[in-house]
Amino acid sequence: MNSIDPMSFTAAAARLLAIDDSELIHRLLKFRLQHERLEIHGAINAREGLAMARELQPDVILLDIDMEDMNGFDVLTTLKNDPLTQDIAVIFISGTEEAMDKVRALDQGAVDFVSKPFEVVELKARVRTAIRSQRLMKMLAQKAQIDGLTGLWNRAYMNQRLAAEVDEARRHGQPLSMILCDIDRFKHHNDHFGHPFGDLVIERFAQILSSGRSSDVACRYGGEEFCVLLPSTTAVEAEEVANRYREQLEHITWNDHPGLVVTASFGVAEFGPGRDTAESMLKAADAALYTAKQGGRNRVAVASPA
Amino acid sequence: MPDDGPITSEFADDPDMAILIADFVASLPGRARAILDRIDQGATEQARTMAHQLKGAGGGYGFPQVTDAARAVDLAIREHRLDDAHAAAQALITLCARVAP
Q: Averaged over B72-81, what is the pLDDT?
């Protein structure tokens, strides 16, 4: 669910958005780039282009400078100020011959500049290079957010994603739940059976958490503590999910330690009144987890409405 | 080639480009005429945008001469030399009449 698949960065056709107010250029680009592994979209003015960039999340944008409704520099600034579009590679493609325009474009964050009329082989090479660089950057950024032992998202990513999911839940009135979980007596297992076994327990538990629904986001919160975000999910549904995780861990047979039962405790909290921020949701889930631990471990506790 | 002979695309040998070029060529006289009309009507910014677009596209369809002629119109309007812009647009019309698929 969370692991990086390098193939996803190379096998899939890249998405290209051309923003240019000349239909002659759109026809030419579509024709000239038709044999590249590209999914090509076009916007005939700047405002349409900005909307399409947000919606399509293209890998690369070919952007004209001289458009009637907004010039390309302002479009680039808008793209770079929007978290949804700021990482899209932008190549200016323009008939301007001013060196300062090229400098300004690159200074503002464009990755390249192609002059019109363009040489087809040069354009193709520049598009390929921009896509390759953009995908490598994306892969590096993701790697920085992945936990090395488990392959789950790390805490930094979880904090960022939780804030985004809380915003979505607030904006669209969709349910959102969170499961905070902790492996029971982990220190004991670690001390008694050794750190390699402790690592194995963490890895197996992470596999369970990442085998859930594709929409769920499992993260290693730290040490033996994990967090799962469940968009569009009520606390009742999240409790069922947590109980499935709990049972799967409980029923693992540990080959080197026959008879050993490893368990975990779970705290569930749902977005709602009094729990409408990332912090308050975490706090409620943490309190529920504490209740589960206090109640004898190997159980799921749901935070009661605030 | 005489200066008043037909102008063909640099990509005329590319059969895949044939339809694209034919459409472009068919649209050229109307586009050039529209640029001159806008200049004469005082809609210079519209004229400049149209000339600018033709400048960007001409070479891509294999007609660098169209790019050059449209550039002259674009530049004259940018520099507020409207008589020159008018003359350049006339020259663009003459050139476009020679362009053949």
A: 95
